[in-house]
Amino acid sequence: MIICALIIYTQMQFIKNKPLGFDQNNLVGLELEGNFKDQGKVELLKQELKKSGAVVSSSEFAGSFTNMSNNSSDFGWPGKDVNDNALFEYRSTGYDYAKTVGAKIVAGRDFSARFIADTSTSVILNEAAVKRMGLKDPVGTVISWAGNPPLTIVGVMQDYSNGSPGAKSLPTVFYHNLHLVAQLMIRLNPELPLNKSVQLVKEVTQRLNPAYPAEFEYIDQAMQAKLQSERILSTLSNLFGGFCIFISCLGLLGLALYMAEQRQKEISIRKVLGADLKSILILLNKDFIKLVLIANLIASPVAYILAGKWLQKYDYRIDMGVWPFILAAVISLLIALLTVSLQSFKVARANPVDALKYE
């Protein structure tokens, strides 16, 4: 149990500290409802938000940023196998999307109003999509998508993690179709307090869309919520591990009491014959040390198999290595030594006369 608790804790810390590939801080999604179904109103909204000083960048986005999108197997690319039915997510975005969410363009460029073709025949792929298609030089490559004109790859975006904790980025195709967007991704001004920026955004949206109060998706909170079940699992494993250690200590203490009682006369005779405290403690503890080592040898393979199966559900996972097993062995030995030694010390310090006076 100690081994599994250590591995679960380490995996949770790994997921928690792993870079997401985008900047979740000061990033919110504003639902586009009412008047904001009109693209002209959305453009006005973006301008007014920029003027307010609360927003440094914004871009339209289809659906919720932290939820799954639609997928399709109808994409084609040079060299595609006719039997390849790979699924690709597809997301519609506005201009400057990568800049707004804090993602990195690793090749080519982001969508821009300076390029008229971006509104109809340009796409951006993430690294996972490029890898899945097997493209060596993706920028400039023409791909197909059923029902659409030929599409030219203008950029490659670094993979980012906005789905399940520990999961890899799915192959994704970003395209520009503002008729399908549902959110406006907003990068709030980091130089202003968050509540001040949000209040300014609310004032602007209230003025332009009075019938619909502003609804926000705070991306950092949404990402933290995705980790909640993992946190609960980590907490439960720690509590259960602690409970198991407590029960083990009680068992060891009871066994130590029994064995000390059985060997009390032997220990008294050894003391009379000149045995010192150290040798008596070693005598009483060595059998327990052997038992703990044997228990670790039995438990380690079982823990390795169980923890390995649990880790399989994560695309990004730790390498177990040997340290959890060594640390668990050290912890169990220390607990056993401390628990047994407390009773052994009491027996070893006892007056031999008390045990031998009736012999």
From TrEMBL:
Residues annotated as domain MacB-like periplasmic core: 85-176
Annotated membrane topology: Multi-pass membrane protein
UniProt-listed InterPro entries: ABC3_permease_C, MacB_PCD, Macrolide_Exporter_MacB
Top-level division of the source organism's lineage: Bacteria
GO cellular component annotations of the record: plasma membrane
Pfam families for this protein: FtsX, MacB_PCD
GO molecular function: transmembrane transporter activity
UniProt keyword list: Cell membrane, Membrane, Transmembrane, Transmembrane helix
Record domain ABC3 transporter permease C-terminal: where: 239-352
Transmembrane annotation, as ranges: 239-260, 288-307, 322-342
Subcellular location: Cell membrane
Protein's name in the database: FtsX-like permease family protein
Organism the protein comes from: Pedobacter hartonius
